Amino acid sequence: MSTLGILLTLTVLAAFSYYIGRKRSLALATPVKRGGNDLHSLPSYYGYLVVIWAIIPALLVFALWSSLEKPLLTSSMMSHLPAEYQSKSADELSLTTNRILNMAKDPTQLATAEPVFKAAAEDYQQMQSTSQTIKTLLVLALAIAGVFIGLRHVKPKTRARNQVERVLQFIMIGCASIAILTTVGIVFSVLFESYRFFGQVPATDFLFGTHWSPQTALRADQAGSSGSFGAIPLFVGTLLISAIALLIAVPLGLMSAIYLSEYAGPKLRAYAKPAMEILAGIPTVVYGFFAALTVAPFIRELGESIGLSVASESALAAGVVMGIMIIPFMSSLSDDVINAVPQAMRDGSYGMGATKSETIKQVILPAALPGIVGAFLLAASRAIGETMIVVMAAGLAANLTINPLEAVTTVTVQIVTLLTGDQEFDSAKTLAAFALGLSLFIVTLILNVVALHIVRKYREQYD
Amino acid sequence: MTEATIDMTTTALPKTNTVTSGGREEFAHTISGTIGKPYLDGKDAKFFCRGVNVFYAGEKQAIFDVNMDIGKNEVIAMIGPSGCGKSTFLRCLNRMNDTIPGCRVTGDLKLDGEDIHDREQDPVLLRARVGMVFQKPNPFPKSIYDNVAYGPRLHGLAANRSELDEIVESSLRKAGLFNEVKDRLQAPGTGLSGGQQQRLCIARTIAVSPEVILMDEPTSALDPIATATIEELIDELRASFTICIVTHSMQQAARISQRTAYFHLGYLVELNDTKTVFTNPQHQLTENYITGRFG
Amino acid sequence: MTEATIDMTTTALPKTNTVTSGGREEFAHTISGTIGKPYLDGKDAKFFCRGVNVFYAGEKQAIFDVNMDIGKNEVIAMIGPSGCGKSTFLRCLNRMNDTIPGCRVTGDLKLDGEDIHDREQDPVLLRARVGMVFQKPNPFPKSIYDNVAYGPRLHGLAANRSELDEIVESSLRKAGLFNEVKDRLQAPGTGLSGGQQQRLCIARTIAVSPEVILMDEPTSALDPIATATIEELIDELRASFTICIVTHSMQQAARISQRTAYFHLGYLVELNDTKTVFTNPQHQLTENYITGRFG
Amino acid sequence: MSTTTERVKATLGKRYAREKRFRFYGLASIALSILFLVILLADIIGKGYPAFTSTYIKLDVQLDAQTLGVTADSTPEQLRTANYNAVIQNSLNTLIPGVTERKEKKALKDLVSGDAKYELQRMVADDPTLIGTNQSVWVLADDDIDTYYKGNIDRTLPESDRRIKDFQLVWLDKLEADGRIESQFNSIFFTRGDSREPEEAGILSALIGSFYTLLVTLALSFPIGVAAALYLEEFAPKNNFWVDLIEVNINNLAAVPSIVFGLLGLAVFIQLFGVPRSAPLVGGLVLTLMTLPTIIIAARAALRAVPPSIREGALGIGASKTQTVFQNVLPLAMPGILTGTIIGMAQALGETAPLLMIGMIAFIMDVPSSVTSPSTVLPVQIYLWSDSPERAFVERTSAAIMVLLTFLVSMNLLAVILRKRFERRW
Amino acid sequence: MNDMNTTQHTSQQYNHELEEARSKLMTMGGLVESQVTNAIKALLDRDSALGEKVAYSDHEINAMEIMLDEHCAEIIARRQPAASDLRLLITIIKVITDLERIGDEAEKVGRYAVEMAETPTYGDLHNALRHLGEHVKVMLSDTLDVLGRLDVAQAMQVVRNDQQVDEEFDSITRQLYTRMLEDPRNIKDSLNVTWCARSLERVGDHCKNICEYVIYLVKGKDVRHTNIESIRETLLGE
Amino acid sequence: MNDMNTTQHTSQQYNHELEEARSKLMTMGGLVESQVTNAIKALLDRDSALGEKVAYSDHEINAMEIMLDEHCAEIIARRQPAASDLRLLITIIKVITDLERIGDEAEKVGRYAVEMAETPTYGDLHNALRHLGEHVKVMLSDTLDVLGRLDVAQAMQVVRNDQQVDEEFDSITRQLYTRMLEDPRNIKDSLNVTWCARSLERVGDHCKNICEYVIYLVKGKDVRHTNIESIRETLLGE
């Protein structure tokens, strides 16, 4: 049976077991006064209990089997290959594996394959179908056995509700833990590859080097020996663009938020807020396009018209557009923060004869300051991690400059550049992307944690 | 007055009590003008209100033709069931209703003879003269000192730091808070207890030397002990300020006010000496409310 | 009792009143055991509480060694200054304290002889027997009908729709709400007025036929008129339920309860007939609280 | 009294001036922000709207069996490989006679798009009886011609500076005079996959790719996100190390740059678990991890907005914690959760960077058939096209952006409507 | 008694408590009335048994006084009454004191009745006493009416009647004085009769007090220690 | 008077109001005491001017009664007193009635004093009257002390003393009876003296009442209509 088939069967079985579980509980119940009975829980919970017995073990086995199936079968298949193939390097071995697996999938390829591989592929097909059969039988058997075990648990005294609820809770804990797994995944993937990178390039060179030209590493047979991986220009470029962006976004965003929440009439709010939201909802790739095709040329022409030489991929263009992108982010965060200041405080200030701006400047902003700082940090984190705008509008050349009119490159740009196109997983060039990813992750992590801490403390104050 | 008196006579007599049994709406028609002593001789009136109507957005009328005088150095309490308009009326007195979109006030409202709702009248100035204390204590997230200094700084009432210090201290003293906080004037005002916060808000209001203090259920968020302290404070403040207080609790009105105004469905039904209102109210609606006969 | 009596005698006499002037803390040491009638003969006790202590996270003790019996079909009111532990104690009675992390209850707490905090005791079952009404009216955002039917459905108390209808109607009737809402049982419960909402919550609680109803300041969010209605309802419910009510307002305790418990700093200072508590309290702390002498 | 009043009065003028200035700054900020939006949209629309039409040239083709080398009875395979190019060549030669120079001959052939022969192929395959007849057919013009007709090539420029030479202009003027040039709705854009030729490039494969990717994302992130939010908001013990860790993680993940998720996908899903590269499945997995924090945070906010009194009420009646949460709290929070989910999906739809990392940047002509077949997504398509130098691709990029924005705006609108409709004030 | 149902409070319990106070007051009034009636009867009929009964029944009235006092204090403590409710309770507290004192006077008369049962005749005094007794009885019964119906007009009537009772009492004392002068053997009896008359006169005074309280209750104006004309003016001339 | 400062309410105003009620009560008590003293003096010294003054001063006491009544009602309405405060106010309301009646009795004595100013001598009666008067004066002054200091022990003493006053009054009436029998010319004077003695005896009764109220105030227990032994038991035997 196919995966889909198994899942469908299980679904049907689940519905069935709910039905009989519920029915059985009612049959076993002794009625007591006023329409009640002596069941510990409502009948439906007994239904759910049986469903759990029927489905959960079966699903677990199914998931385990499915995830182990491929690696196990593959290694088994490979072990049957002649020795000459097995002695090859890991890279070639995996290439061979892939070829055989593709053959097993595609009959047309199989027909034209070499005999050794053909045998292996057919062997694989064979094993796979056996495995599939066993899996189907095992899962269904487990499910049916589960139904019976579940039914034996249907007794008036069984705390069905408590048991069902406990299972539910475990499922929810599992889901919540995915966040940790994700972080662990990020840290591990980035750390592991970075570790390999720092095996080839010293960390100090990476962190303090002022020259970045990973391309040299591409030369064959020279894996990682002579490329320059000094990331300082990238860091400076990133900071330059982010600074430009924040210079635009923070005042505009903050003042917009203040105006919208304190001054604007309902009409203006009704139009301006959605407009801001649209600005926030525009994908970064669009901003990138806008930056590269409209803003950059415009700035260059503007610069030229007043006699400045502006690079066509100037930091200014990317920064300005990134700033525009962050305005709504900054404004909505500030808006939240300002709205969290209780109305009572405004009333208090107005009641003493303060004007609106006095109230804002002397009461609301001081009250909201921690939140605004948090918003600022989050915006900075966002600017630093922003990818598409800079990929499309900033340069590739790693100039170490703080002149906004020149082209600079950023961490994210380099990651994208290094990882798209042909890659070799062991080259320093590819691994450098992960090292950059690591530094990006660490910086944003610090910013985020600090910002979130500040914001949370602030929220608690007015909750 | 004659009509009202007759009404009182007949309804106060138990014989005719079949009439009273119908609930409060039955008396709504008897609200024609305010019973009691709504007017002062005029010479001592701080506020002079004639024919005040308040409309909310959508022409919903919240206050109908209210006439009253509010005297100097008196505590006047406004009571009545929820939605009777007492808070709305209070907020007319320093134009806090301006902050509610669509709210419109008509009629004659004068503070010391100046029209409050006049275009020429500056709400900032007005609110400096007519301070307000709110239901929920709302100290600013500043130090205790800065909370009290807020108003004087805003209005430039102190020429220098020592003058400001003086204002802050005397305001805190008047609010009965100085001794409790003198060692921590730089501590945040939000760290005080609820009752202290409310006294801080009162101190803050006093610091501007207003002539009138409006209080909108100033103790409804406080426990009985803090409430008692605030009530005591109000009684002391009476010497220097005119105080208008809206309260949920008629007992509180009884305790602290000299005159009590009873609002009902937007009408000012009775305004009388507090003693009279609570021992011998003149309008049946007042009587019903005071004695817990709500229909 | 002897010690307490002496205390009362000396402090109640004005001659010795220099003693009373020091404020309430001075009497804290006199709290040794509860004065009054904390115990019933036992036969009629619904709740039996002995040596109840409650600790919050960090070992902060909120309730100290409380002993009391709560009788069948009585309204027992718990009063005291903020933070005196009255609400905390109330929430022990149906283990609502379980929902507060770190809260620990020790001592003997029995409902009809069954240990409430026993591991075997299912809090869900317990709460079906001991219903609770909260400070803020909290109808579910469902129809009025579904609000009331929620509990019976939860516990499977109705075999079919007509039985459920019956339960809903009778609960609404008992809560004095049926006539007001019978034409709009499918309207959302949140559309009712505050007082009606609170009565709906009471109806919802009644629908499960609990034996006891706990009320945690059920009228503090309501205006005087709605409050009076709820108080009236409580008085009617007494015929069928045991009612424990925590209230901010001692006047309310005076109006509706048969016995009143005065808590102070986590101690149960006095538990006595309401009449006695309000005309002739036995402990000086109670007297101070009742008469508004807060120190 | 008088002192206060007078002193206050003295300060009033200055204070009101400050008030006015402050107010102006605020208004200017909003105006500027909105101005940016307007410029952005105007720029995109201005660039993109021509892409919705294409220039077509009417050819009179002789589908004669000899030239084609097939008959009406030929097999479909034969019909497919017939020499349609020659037919087109002939027809062009007839239209513009006297072209002999090699360079000009090639230019003449390039007047029509490479798609023209496939157009004929489709016609014939549909109706083999057409063989032997003369047909008048509108065929797609080349992208340069298209660009010219949309007014994006300036005739006044020196010949060397433009892609269309003078002799071509002569031809075009003739064709136009014959009424053989026409602008038609560009259906290809919506029905084809990517192509090296701008006039043949469409967004369908990217759209379907996006659809599959979002499907995977939604199917995973919604249940997981809701379950996680429920656990954290309702069940998790407070002040518990693990729970705090989860919480910090989620909040942090929400702000982690998207590209880092791409790195994760690349290293974990593709290299470790061997999920096929470039497939919606892996894209969906990465986007799931990315949107989960958004959904969890939105769901938690929605759950938190349900007042505790509702929970207390249910608990007080004897509902268990789980019953309380699932019967009372969750339904109330659902509109908020859905809103958050839609917004999360919109983010996912517009996301580009992480997908670049996992290889969804491939050149895909075919419409993907399942979640495991190689595909690209709309934003990546935009990114790819934006790199192409042809003017016609700029047009198409903008058009694709318009399509993307339309989807995003509709999704956000849906969220707004949902929020407005079910918004509840407690 | 149903006339007295003036309470329409939201709280039925409060209604009930006030109602109970009023009905207890009426019961007490009834008890006092029958004591006075019996005392007068015993006095006039020389019924020593009845006189003794009266003398021994006084404790019932005393008990009711204490009970009502406590009841009213409890209501005040628990209900925080205001306005008319408060006036009602204060009035009750005042009225019961007077009722109790009327009871005391009746007890005294009862005692004298026992003592004088042997006296053959009072002569003219009998008539005078009977007249005074009747008058006082009517006054008391009117007073109870006033209490029951809270009838201000009737209350004013009772206040006015008190003057007549006083005059009658004066006339009796004069008669007694004459009688004593006539025959010193009559002195003891006469003195006793004087005491009885005095007691009856005091009953009238108490009735007057009660009616003044009722006027206060209904009108919210205190009319004690004011002459009848100014009372009328106060009430009508507003 | 400072002894009476029992109020430590958070509300100074409330303290003040209660204090005012008590001080007014004491003023009224003082007034009543001086009326009684003067009346007795006028009676014994045959000082008709003083007697007249007493008779004409009663309205002050009446006015104070009304004022205090209103004051107490106002406090109850405005402050919702409970427990000891409430008992205090109820006690004041009760006490002033008795004080006013004592004032009435003094007025009567004053009137008789005017009437009897011409009487040459009361013979032995003078001593007996003086004795009774002294006793009553002491009792009244003790009562005011009890009011001022809320001294339960002294209050019980006063209650006990009332029995002695009653006995003295009985002895006076017996003497008067004898005197009347001896010489019918004395009848008129004797009757007047009787009335005076009666009034003084009633002052004693009222004092007893007041003390009983004070016991109620302090102890929260009503001890009226109970004999002295059971009072002691009630208070001490708890």
TrEMBL record, chain A:
It is a multi-pass membrane protein. Its main location: membrane. It is found in: Cell inner membrane; Cell membrane. This is Phosphate transport system permease protein. It comes from Thiothrix caldifontis. GO terms for biological process: phosphate ion transport. NCBIfam families: phosphate_pstC (TIGR02138). GO terms for cellular component: plasma membrane. The chain crosses the membrane at residues 45-68, 137-155, 167-192, 234-258, 278-299, 306-327, 363-384, 431-455. Keywords: Cell inner membrane, Cell membrane, Membrane, Phosphate transport, Transmembrane, Transmembrane helix, Transport. Signal peptide: none annotated. GO terms for molecular function: phosphate transmembrane transporter activity. Belongs to the binding-protein-dependent transport system permease family. CysTW subfamily. CDD domains: TM_PBP2 (cd06261). Pfam families: BPD_transp_1 (PF00528), DUF3708 (PF12501). Part of the binding-protein-dependent transport system for phosphate; probably responsible for the translocation of the substrate across the membrane. Residues 235-451 form the ABC transmembrane type-1 domain.
UniProtKB/TrEMBL annotation, chains B, C:
PROSITE patterns: ABC_TRANSPORTER_1, ABC_TRANSPORTER_2. The keyword Disulfide bond does not apply. GO terms for biological process: phosphate ion transmembrane transport. Residues 40-290 form the ABC transporter domain. CDD domains: ABC_PstB_phosphate_transporter. SUPFAM superfamilies: P-loop containing nucleoside triphosphate hydrolases. It comes from Thiothrix caldifontis. GO terms for cellular component: membrane. Keywords: ATP-binding, Nucleotide-binding, Phosphate transport, Transport. One of its GO terms (molecular function) is ATP hydrolysis activity. This is Phosphate transport system ATP-binding protein. InterPro entries: AAA+_ATPase, ABC_transporter-like_ATP-bd, ABC_transporter-like_CS, P-loop_NTPase, PstB-like. It holds the Pfam family ABC_tran.
From TrEMBL, chain D:
Residues 207-415 form the ABC transmembrane type-1 domain. It is found in: Cell inner membrane; Cell membrane. One of its GO terms (molecular function) is phosphate transmembrane transporter activity. It is a multi-pass membrane protein. This is Phosphate transport system permease protein PstA. The keyword Transport applies. Belongs to the binding-protein-dependent transport system permease family. CysTW subfamily. Its main location: membrane. GO terms for biological process: phosphate ion transmembrane transport. The lineage of its organism: Bacteria, Pseudomonadati, Pseudomonadota, Gammaproteobacteria, Thiotrichales.
TrEMBL record, chains E, F:
It is found in: Cytoplasm. Its main location: cytoplasm. Keywords: Cytoplasm, Phosphate transport, Transport. InterPro entries: PhoU, PhoU-like_sf, PhoU_dom. Transmembrane segments: none annotated. Residues 26-112, 129-214 form the PhoU domain. GO terms for biological process: intracellular phosphate ion homeostasis; negative regulation of phosphate metabolic process; phosphate ion transport. One of its GO terms (cellular component) is cytoplasm. Belongs to the PhoU family. Homodimer. Plays a role in the regulation of phosphate uptake. This is Phosphate-specific transport system accessory protein PhoU. It comes from Thiothrix caldifontis.
